[in-house]
Amino acid sequence: MKQGNNNPKTWQLLPLKEILNIEVGDDQATKDIADAKGTIPYIQSGDVKNTKDIRIRFYTTRDRIEAKGMKPDQKVLTKERLLLAMARLGTAGRVGIFREAAIHNQATAALIPIIPIDIDFLFYYFRYRQPLVAQEVEKHGKPRITKKYLQENIFIPLPPGGVEEEKRIVERLEARLREVQQGYKLIENTQREITNAFNKALLNIFTPEQIEKWPGTRRIELRNMVDTIQERVVQQNAQLESYLYIDETHITPERGLLHTRSTWQAHQESIESSIILLEQAQDVVLYYKSNALARLAVLLDVDQALCSTTMIPLRVRKDRQKDLLPGFLLWSLLSKQFLAYVTTNKQGMMQTSPSVNKVLSYELPLPDINMQRDIVKHLMRVQEITHEMQEKADDSRNKLTRVERAIFQKAFQGEL
């Protein structure tokens, strides 16, 4: 095999613990320490997105940190470090670089160099190794990787020539990756256009003008058409481990699709103390209430499931099944008309987390059942076409990912 400037046989392969200290965030550093007047960045695992720069969404204060029983001088890290997401399928293994003072939650680890090493070199190496970390989470059905796992299973190759050679490798690597990033942007633009086309189809059906043309249209409060399901169960229940579990991360925004199906077993360390049990879940519509702007809703096609308490489960009442189709309910909840309703309070101010009562008070425009069937059939066909187009875009993304991984592999084998 053709080698680059460095023969990989001359590289050192060192365990992570000889290169980096691992500082796992405090379990008291939860969302409630966020303060709009704060100046100390508060970082969660969801903020770590495999980009060098981490976009800060929340800040906190020394007083808030102390109120949770933590010592700011110990928990606010100031050294240049790599941040590693430690929790959740699809997130675990992501990395980012942070160079300012900040506090991070327990689902994030700070990797702090204890020997001279280029932080960008580390960033790209951990991006390259992310699938290994993700496999660990998936293989054991655990939502979190541990400090011990990182110390015992991650080995980092270091080229001869030290930091200067690491910087040269990064420079060559980034030159190759720029072309890949252009490809990703093209795919993202294509997927955005596909989503916009679907939204336009949905919008055109639920315009006020179209609604007025529907035959037999009535406006009926949603509470008179559906029942809500509120049966909560504790997490520690072995009988529920094989049940499908759904939260907001599993639903494709605006399109009413489950893009991820996983069991409760993979989520048992969720921060929630209870979940909602859905027996006879077939044709139940889940609506995400914590952020209406996300436009998340899905129609279930399984017999039994569990869902996060951030969801409102709605089931068409038996005495109303001849008047309202579950599919029509789904598309109504995803319409711009419903969005405008739930995001405006009585004072005309914006609200993003509607109450159950607010949702149930919606006056649903309801055409006759045949018109509902036509609307559902049309939107399901548009959804199907959209899904096929998205799958093709996903295939292109996967091919690009394989190219990217081949570039990473060459870089860390001294072949770039």
From TrEMBL:
Look up keyword Ribosomal protein and say if it applies: no
Molecular function (Gene Ontology), one example:
DNA binding
Any single biological process term in GO: DNA restriction-modification system
Give UniProt keywords alphabetically: Coiled coil, DNA-binding, Restriction system
In this entry, which stretches build a coiled coil?
A: 163-190
* Stored InterPro entries: Restrct_endonuc_typeI_TRD (IPR000055), Restrct_endonuc_typeI_TRD_sf (IPR044946), Type-I_RS_S_subunit (IPR052021)
The UniProt record lists the Type I restriction modification DNA specificity domain at: 8-176
What the entry lists under Pfam families is as follows:
Methylase_S
Q: Which family does it belong to?
A: Belongs to the type-I restriction system S methylase family.
The record ties this protein, via PANTHER family, to: TYPE I RESTRICTION ENZYME MJAVIII SPECIFICITY SUBUNIT, TYPE-1 RESTRICTION ENZYME ECOKI SPECIFICITY PROTEIN
Q: What is the protein named?
A: Type I restriction modification DNA specificity domain-containing protein
Organism from which the protein derives: Reticulibacter mediterranei
